[in-house]
């Protein structure tokens, strides 16, 4: 540490080195000693970075940056870092770029120099092909810098957009993230929120004035809101330690960039715990079961679910199969009998696109009678949700494997990883019912008895005879077939059509 009691002699080499040390010491000194007091009990922005990264691996960039504003008495306070910590380091030996917004300097408000630091980091990440991890804790624009802050936020949105699909982006919402600052977070591939943090576009005071009712940041966009209502929070954590653990775990599933292979787990020989899949499907096809048990048996038992509290009729998350990272999509028969909804379809579509962007093969488990038939669902945009799910899967270039465990009827069959949609391998269990509709519905259209229709059509064999199913397999053999399918699909080569981009129904 440098001697702060004496001014170094800048005419000497030793003095200049000491001056550098003093400047860096200032940048590394907690904000409580140089600006505004930090939030009581909270980790500092720098402490969050150091806790997330491997010990001693953090290399800071632009530590000595300061704002250039003289108006509104800003010339009196020019703290080093300007309110955001940027740099790169390692997580379990894997390189990442990282920024951490500092709420203890100008409330983390975005300014020109602040944004320039983040822009440089996005540029560095895309050039070197490493993930970007953003720890967000900002109330929005720096009012003293005026419209320039809006301009710089627009540039940040553009940078995050250009990085999308090139390198993984993980957002950790650590405190109140409001107004302009909130617009970048949804561009991340995965978002983690700490309980007590918030994410909202509107200013709380303005909402209170317009509505005539006092509101809070938590009511507008707390972790519970985004976990269950909007779906923006893919993972929530009780505290910062849990949130940092979640980010570390997410990094273990994601490749470094869009050209890298899906990562291998630490133990590629790990076998899943034995689960009797041959008895998991009830004899009564109206009786629910837990699809997560199937996922655990087929994968290495490390399924990491995303958006668990949002659209629970569809499960999405990461796992390993014989050590190879994969994305998993599964309909949940214990919620809405596995019926799809507009939110569930869009949840799956977004996750499929994330996996496809980063070379994660997709394994899908299907047991769904179709979309929920209701006026509310239609008004919510169920047709567009179905189209978005179909679009995402049809566009996917990674290896795709579908396993039909029980019902795959009508629209559900069509949009949930069917052969016609482009699935590479489709397996069905003997309990599968692959048909245009359930027995009563189909029978009423055909003028035959429901029992007759069920006997002739509610099975996997009609579809298999037409080549719509590659193999009917015993449930207990599913892990073997999925593993061998993934090994085969590592060799898959897809050449997308030459176009600017498609137009997914958003």
Tell me what you see in this structure.
The structure is a single chain. This protein is α/β, with parallel strands linked by helices. The chain has two domains: 13-253, 2-enoyl-CoA Hydratase, Chain A, domain 1, CATH 3.90.226; 277-489, Alpha-Beta Complex (2-enoyl-CoA Hydratase, Chain A, domain 1), CATH 3.90.226.10. It has 17 helices and 17 strands. The strands form three sheets. Strands 10, 11, 12, 13, 14, 15, 16 and 17 form an eight-stranded mixed β-sheet that branches. Strand 4, helix 4 and strand 5 form a beta-alpha-beta unit. Helix 14 (439-446) crosses helix 15 (450-457). It is elongated and about 95 Å long. Residues 32-38 have low confidence and may be disordered.
**Distance linking N and C termini:** 54 Å
What is the CATH superfamily classification of the largest domain? 2-enoyl-CoA Hydratase, Chain A, domain 1
- Using the coordinates above, name the CATH class of the largest domain: Alpha Beta
The structure class reads alpha/beta
What count of helical segments does DSSP give?
17
**Fraction of residues in β-strands:** 15-25%
Shape descriptor reads elongated
Instruction: Please give the share of residues in helix.
Output: 25-40%
- Largest sheet geometry: 8 strands, mixed
Low-confidence stretches: 32-38
CATH fold naming of the largest domain: 2-enoyl-CoA Hydratase, Chain A, domain 1
Rg, alpha carbons: 26 Å
Average pLDDT confidence is 92
Number of domains: 2
The CATH architecture designation of the largest domain is Alpha-Beta Complex
Counting DSSP E segments of at least 2 residues, the number of strands comes to 17
């Amino acid at each position: 540490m440098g001697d702060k009691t004496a001014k170094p002699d800048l005419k000497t080499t030793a003095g200049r080195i000491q001056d550098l040390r003093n400047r860096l010491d200032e940048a590394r000194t907690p904000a409580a000693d140089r600006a505004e007091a930090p939030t009581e009990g909270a980790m500092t922005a720098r402490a969050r970075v150091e806790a997330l990264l491997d010990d001693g691996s953090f290399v800071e960039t632009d530590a000595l940056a300061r704002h250039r504003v003289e108006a509104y008495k800003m010339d009196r306070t020019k703290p080093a870092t300007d309110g955001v910590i940027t740099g790169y380091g390692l997580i379990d030996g894997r390189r990442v770029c990282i920024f951490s917004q500092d709420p203890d300097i100008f409330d983390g408000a975005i300014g020109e120099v602040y944004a320039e630091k983040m822009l440089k980091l996005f540029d560095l990440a895309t050039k070197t092909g490493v993930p970007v991890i953003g720890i967000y804790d900002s109330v929005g624009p720096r009012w003293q810098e005026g419209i320039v802050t809006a301009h710089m936020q627009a540039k940040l949105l553009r940078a995050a957009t250009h990085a999308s699909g090139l390198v993984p982006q993980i957002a950790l919402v650590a405190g109140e993230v409001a107004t302009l600052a909130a617009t970048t977070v949804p561009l991340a591939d995965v978002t983690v929120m700490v309980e007590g943090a918030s994410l909202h576009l509107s200013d709380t005071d303005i909402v209170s004035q317009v509505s005539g009712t006092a509101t809070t940041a938590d009511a507008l966009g707390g972790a519970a809101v985004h976990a269950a209502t909007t779906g923006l929070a893919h993972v929530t954590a009780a505290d910062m330690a849990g949130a940092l653990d979640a980010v570390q775990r997410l990094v273990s599933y994601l490749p470094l960039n869009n050209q890298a292979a899906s990562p291998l787990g630490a133990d590629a020989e790990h076998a899943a715990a034995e689960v009797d899949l041959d008895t998991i499907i009830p004899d009564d096809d109206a009786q629910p079961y837990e699809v997560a048990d199937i996922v655990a048996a087929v994968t290495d038992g490390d399924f990491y679910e995303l958006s668990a509290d949002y659209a629970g009729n569809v499960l999405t998350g990461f796992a390993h199969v014989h050590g190879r990272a994969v994305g998993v999509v599964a309909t949940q028969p214990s919620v809405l009998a596995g019926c799809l909804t507009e939110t569930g379809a869009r949840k799956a579509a977004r996750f499929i696109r994330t996996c496809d962007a980063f070379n994660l093969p997709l394994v899908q488990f299907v047991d769904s009678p179709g979309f929920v038939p209701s006026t509310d669902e239609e008004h919510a945009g169920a047709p567009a949700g179905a189209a978005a799910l179909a679009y995402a899967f049809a566009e996917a270039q990674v290896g795709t494997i579908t396993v039909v465990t029980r019902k795959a009827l009508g629209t559900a069959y069509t949009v949930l990883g069917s052969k016609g949609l482009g699935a590479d391998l489709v397996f069905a269990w003997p309990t599968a019912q692959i048909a245009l509709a359930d027995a009563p519905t189909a029978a009423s259209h055909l003028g035959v008895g429901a029992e007759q229709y069920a006997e002739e059509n509610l099975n996997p064999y009609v579809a298999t005879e037409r080549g719509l199913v590659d193999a009917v397999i015993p449930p207990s053999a599913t892990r073997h077939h999925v593993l061998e399918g993934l090994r085969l699909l590592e060799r898959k080569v897809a050449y997308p059509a030459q176009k600017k981009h498609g137009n997914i129904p958003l």
